[in-house]
Amino acid sequence: MKFFSILPAVAVAVLGAMSVVGQSVTTVVDNIHTVTTLSDKLRVVAEDITITNILSQGPSLVAGFQQIVTTVTEVNEQMSSIPDPAPFGDDDAQLVVDALITFVKIHQALLNVVIGKHSIAAQFFFTAPIAAVLRVLEAIVDAFATGLIALIPTQKNAATTQFASLTITIQKAITVYSN
């Protein structure tokens, strides 16, 4: 397994962080929904992990997080194609925040399930690869947050609150899997 093969994606995401400002509100909302769907599907995989199937499902969990990282990286790359875009108006910014609220709720649910599966993962040495992918995820989310908040200045406080809440959960998961 190539657990660390996603590390180059961090560089791409960070370089593309400001690129999130280059799309229509529909594209941005659709992209957030795509990542939300991936997170929810991965939550189901994580919920189904047991002591008897961790050897087959553990790699699926890591691969699912890698897919989320890859998707957000692709979103950043796609959005970098439009230079100097104008920020969204308040109505459009609210649509983005609504999608963001759903994403944060679903992604926190995923992370909380993963945190709850730590004892199983630890018995089979899956903590290191999970911690590694969570660190990459944290960097990707930070990069995405920076670009997204720049796109929706009228809803900056609401978006910042959502990302701050998500960051706390990501950091908790990293801490649990790093010990």
Question: How does the SSE layout of this entry go?
Answer:
Elements: H1 7-15, H2 25-47, H3 54-79, H4 90-116, H5 118-123, H6 127-151, H7 156-178
Helix pairs in contact: 1-3, 1-6, 2-3, 2-4, 3-6, 4-7, 6-7
pLDDT < 50 runs, ≥5 residues: 6-22
Q: What is the typical, i.e. mean, pLDDT?
A: 87
| End-to-end C-alpha gap | 22 Å
- Number of extended strands: 0
The helix content is: over 70%
Number of helices: 7
Outline the biggest β-sheet: none
Order of secondary-structure elements: HHHHHHH
Explain this structure to me?
By secondary structure, this protein is mainly alpha-helical. Helix 1 runs parallel beside helix 3 and helix 6 packs antiparallel against helix 7. About 9% of the residues have low confidence.
Task: For this entry, give a set of tags.
179 residues; mainly alpha; 7 helices; 0% strand; elongated
Q: What's the quick description here?
A:
This protein is an all-alpha fold and 179 residues long. It has helices at residues 7-15, 25-47, 54-79, 90-116, 118-123, 127-151, 156-178.
